[in-house]
Amino acid sequence: MELSVPRYLQVKHGLERQIAQGTLRTGAFIPSEHELQAQFKVSRTTVRRAVELLVDDGVLTIIRGRGTIVAPTRLTHKVTDLMSFTELMRRQGLEPAAIGLRVERRRPAEDVAVRLGLGPGEEAYEVFRVRTADGAPISINVSFLPTHAVEVTGLAGLSREQSLYKVLAEDCFIEVSATEDTIQAVKATRAQAATLSVRSGDPLLLIERMAYTRDGSLIEFSRIHIRGDRYKHTIALRRR
Q1: Strand, coil or helix: 240
Q2: Where are any strands of DSSP class E within the chain?
Q3: With respect to CATH, is domain 75-234 assigned 3.40.1410.10?
Q4: Fewest CB atoms less than 10 Å from the CB: which of 79, 93, 94, 195?
Q5: Helices (H) and strands (E) in the chain, counts
């Protein structure tokens, strides 16, 4: 090891190499602090600093009371790309699925009705799904679509097709051409934590999306609660 490189970075780079080479696989627990001290001939403080950096980078994940594992792949989304979550997961080598599908017609909460521009008494279809990647729950998706724009028979395609946007295009002849996302960090409720296999109070990303058709009509308002350890959002800005 090069003496000019701080010891904690030597440990960090050593663990990264082991992960890249497959010695430490996704989901596997890394060696204990004592074992890492012996392996790299460094202090406990140095080991902890290296592990902290890898956790901050999303390479490792701490499982409270059990240890530290090599983190699963994070979904990475660039805002220049308009694609469904199904497409996003497949592009990154993950196998997507949707479970717990529920479609209900109802008058949504007033804040949602305002977002959709619904008049008094107007209803929307509420589409609830839990999205999984390689079998692990990753997000809770709730979409609201105005009933005057979508036929419920068209939404029946969700029982065979995971992508809502694909069903809208192929079965309802509605193409989503633009979206606007608002993202904020929130804490998982007890129910959300149970669904996503995290702890109550753990960080989630809440994505609120407005989806529009080519003529500018609003077709969907959705709320997506996604595990903060499984998603990275990239924003590219250019000076005009």
Answers
A1: coil
A2: 60-63, 67-70, 75-78, 96-106, 124-133, 136-146, 176-187, 203-213, 218-227, 231-234
A3: yes
A4: 93
A5: 8, 10
Helix (H) or strand (E) holding 115: helix 110-116
Task: Encode pLDDT of 41-56 as tens digits.
Answer: 999 999 999 998 888 7
Check pLDDT > 90 for residue 124: yes
b or e along 72-81 (b: 16 or more beta carbons within 10 Å of the residue's beta carbon)?
A: bebbebeeee
Q: Which residues are CB-contacts of 16 (< 8 A; sequence separation ≥ 6)?
A: 54, 59
Nearest-10 Cα torsion for 185, 190, 196, 198: 80
State which fold the 7-70 domain adopts: Arc Repressor Mutant, subunit A (1.10.10)
| Mean pLDDT in residue range 151-175 | 88
Q: What percent of the chain has pLDDT over 70?
A: 85
What's the N-to-C CA distance of the chain in angstroms?
46
